[in-house]
Amino acid sequence: MTGLGTRLSRTIGRAGVVVAAVTAAVLLVAPLAAATPEGDADAAITQAWDAGGGPTGPLGAKDGGVYPIGAGFGQNFAGGKVFFTPDTGAHAMSGAILDEYQSLGGPADGDLGFPTIDEGDGKAPGSRNTTFSAADRPVIFWTPDTGARVVRGAVNAAWDKLGGSAGVLGVPTDDEAYSGDEVSQTFTGGQITWNRKTNAFTTTPPELADQLAGLEIPGDVTTAIAAARRAAGGPLGPLGAPDGGQYAIGSDGAGQNYAGGKIFYSPATGANVLTGQVLAKYDSVGGPEGDLGFPTGNEADGGLAPMSKVAGFAAADEPVIFWTPDFGAVIVRGAMNAAWAKLGGATGQLGAPTADQTESGDVVTQKFSGGAISWNKVTNEFTTEPASLQSQLKGLQVPGATSPEAPAATAAGSEGSQWLRPSWWWLLGIVPVLVLIGVVTAAVVLNRRRRDRAPLEDDVGYDDDYDYDDDPRDEHSGPIPVGETEQRRSGWATPGDEHGDRAATAPDGDRPDGFVADLSADQDSIDTAPTPVVTAAHDEPETPWFSDLDDPDPVTTAEPVTTADPVAAAEPVAADPDDGDRRAEPEFDSGPPSGRHAAIHLDEPVVAEPSLRLASGEGRDAPNGYPIKADTKTGLYWTPDSGGYDDAQPEIWFASEEFALTNGFAKG
């Protein structure tokens, strides 16, 4: 029994401990559970009610419990209401001030916020007022004579600065009124007007405005959007009820959607209203994040009967959207907008725009109901329809347009160099062409000099007094083509004549003029063409002009050919039996031998092997002494060490690479 009693005693003791612990926990948790936002609101409102006299005070008995409203709570009483938030506390309102507050949406749908003080007496005799939590510091001020009026923002700041209801202006007699960018309010002693764009005040009496210079205007993004909505008619205007909350646009902008439109805000433009087709057009081109920028003013009347709307935007070219029932919403910007405005805008001769502007090259054009405007972006010149309007646009400044600049001298390779402008791109292509022309010209000059100086420069000096430009041989200086003599007189041309600088046909009518040889001539006439070698006055033998200078072996000569005309002998010309009308070569004046053009004679005339052979059955194997392959179709030649030499099918064989180059071929 003793053991059983002991165990029973222990069990009872343990149960008592558990009951005590549960009781303590309930007592501790109960106060925590009561500490809710609604509980806090109930406690704060009850405390304010009790402080005002409770059921025997001006508020009277409670009419129901605490309820959530807007961002806080409220409770009704027989003689008024009390509203609460943790930031503003609990404050009572009644009578006409409460009626005005609720007519403007109260704490749930209005833009005044929650009351920040209990309704109390104002400075003016018999007046009462309550202030509110919105950032533009609104107040509802009541007198028996003027009723309850809201004063807020710039007007309230100016009114306070001028002494409030006890100052010269007295008490408000009407609510605020909007006209464009201006808000005004009248008082028993005068008026205050503030322009939101210029931040300037005007007053009645006017001397009061001097006291308001530099006055700080209270507000934030939310109150600016609220003011724009009020200016557009508030909840009963075209915007209607809010559609969602305020949202950010970019880094510092904001927007608010409504059932009938939108409000867009930026620090530079303020808050502005767009609705209907103007808003639809704006949204279609990107809205505030498109290239129009934020709207700079509220959508306004466009001035045309029976109806039109216009809104301006912040882009540098000062665009507007203009709407009419006939043509819809149209964007007019830059030169078009400047010219249109200069000519009277929609109420001028051109009337309303009918379509967005178009561009064709450098010309921008826009059509209007009464004509059209065109503007050249390069010349900055306007043309109009009707043409009589054009003179009014002379010298007109175009917003957002940059004047053409002359190319500036910059360091080569520097960023933004004028050489890299698109208008200079062709110089990049012409430089290599100029270099190529220079190389070709130098080669031709060198070949002429090599042929013309029969005595080499090492043996016979130049005559500095000789007039080389008058040398009669210069007309035919340079290598003479083998074949038709008319070709020699008409000059050289590359195969295909890319530049069109030769006649279409030769005198025989079936070959291009000016090519290296008439391939229809037989090889024998080429092989037997005389090519005499001239000697200097001291009779030392010279290397023939057509010899391969890279070949150390002397040129093998054929049997000598004599001639009675030393000048003709000095001019290597292909034999041509059909060339009967060849013009006579000019003769040199007699005189002592001197310089490059000294008189020449043939003491030991020789005939060298011709510099080229036609490919007549040799195939791809080079004939003896003619290792260079050439093709007239491509204008290319190949040396034995050239790639593709073995595969090339020649039409001409040259004795040396120099002869191929001299006759206008390029190395393949």
Describe this structure in words.
Helices cover 22% and strands 20% of the residues. It is α+β, with helices and mostly antiparallel strands. The strands form eight sheets. The chain has a five-stranded mixed beta sheet with strand order 27-30-28-29-31. The N and C termini lie far apart (129 Å).
* Helix run count: 13
Overall form: elongated
- Give the oligomeric state of the chains in this entry, treating copies of one chain as homo and distinct chains as hetero: single chain
State the major sheet. Answer: 5 strands, mixed
Q: Strands of the largest sheet, in order across it?
A: 27-30-28-29-31
Structural class: alpha+beta
Low-confidence stretches: 403-427, 454-607
* Nearest-integer average pLDDT: 76
Strand portion: 15-25%
Rg over C-alpha atoms, rounded to the nearest angstrom: 52 Å
| DSSP strand tally | 31
Helix share, percent? 10-25%
Distance N terminus to C terminus? 129 Å
